[in-house]
Design brief:
- With about 190 residues, the protein is of the alpha+beta class.
- Among the domains are: about 45 residues, no CATH class; about 70 residues, Winged helix-like DNA-binding domain superfamily/Winged helix DNA-binding domain (Arc Repressor Mutant, subunit A), CATH 1.10.10.10.
- It is built from eight helices and six strands; from the N terminus they run αββββαααββαααα.
- The strands form two sheets. It has a four-stranded antiparallel beta sheet with strand order 1-2-3-4. A two-stranded antiparallel ribbon has the order 5-6.
- The longest helix is centred in the last third of the chain and has 23 residues.
- The protein is elongated, with a radius of gyration of 18 Å.
- The chain starts with 5 loop residues before the first helix and ends with a helix.
- The structure holds fe (ii) ion.
Length: about 190
């Protein structure tokens, strides 16, 4: 199940007659899915149905995605990623990181050498970039709704793992509309406080 705050929900539940843009976000207990309804077209986190909470729609575990995301961030900011840096970023023990890094190495997502750090393989980079892109888009979307940055960070870290490609496309379309409509943004942001 995706974690989305009441604040984000309230920000998205708006009917704006002036602009005729109608956005409703709700969690369907029956369907066990997060549904985003934009202008009458409902987009559902289809990938969430009948999935274990620890798996993304692509079948990758959320833990793997979190590791790859942090590793890419470290490489982009520092030029390298070491076990100690990853442990600090994820706030877990170095022993746990070492185990996971060895697993990711075995799965062909990175190359790990004990005293020389690690590098992402092409497959690892592709997955890491995909999650980073989802993180960026969802952050942008919630920020345009006027949601608080701390709430955004919390919600996006959950949503980014479970969102389906069709919902992501819908959110991308809504985000582009919001970027083009400052008056609509102002109304949404006023309601999100
Ligand atoms: Fe993230």
């Amino acid at each position: 199940m995706v974690a989305i705050s009441g604040c984000a929900m309230n920000a998205a539940k708006r009917f704006l007659g002036e602009t005729n843009l109608f956005i409703v976000v709700y969690y369907s207990v029956k369907r066990q899915s997060l549904v985003i309804d934009c202008c009458g077209d409902a987009f559902m986190f289809a990938g969430m149905r009948n999935k274990k909470a620890s798996q993304s729609p692509a079948g990758t575990s959320t833990a793997v995605e979190d590791y790859l995301e942090r590793i890419l961030e470290l490489i982009n900011s520092k030029g390298y990623a070491r076990v100690i840096d990853i442990a600090g970023a994820l706030k877990i023990s170095q022993a746990s990181v070492t185990n996971m890094v060895q697993r990711l190495d075995a799965e062909g997502l990175l190359k790990y050498e004990k005293y020389r750090g690690l590098i992402l393989t092409a497959a690892g980079k592709k997955l890491a970039r995909r999650i980073a892109q989802r993180h960026k888009l969802l952050t942008e979307f919630l920020r345009l709704l006027g949601v608080d940055d701390r709430v955004i960070h919390h919600d996006v870290e959950g949503m980014e793992h479970h969102i389906s490609p069709s919902t992501l496309r819908a959110i991308t379309a809504v985000t582009r509309q919001l970027q083009r409509r400052p008056s609509l943004r102002a109304q949404l942001q006023a309601g999100a406080v």
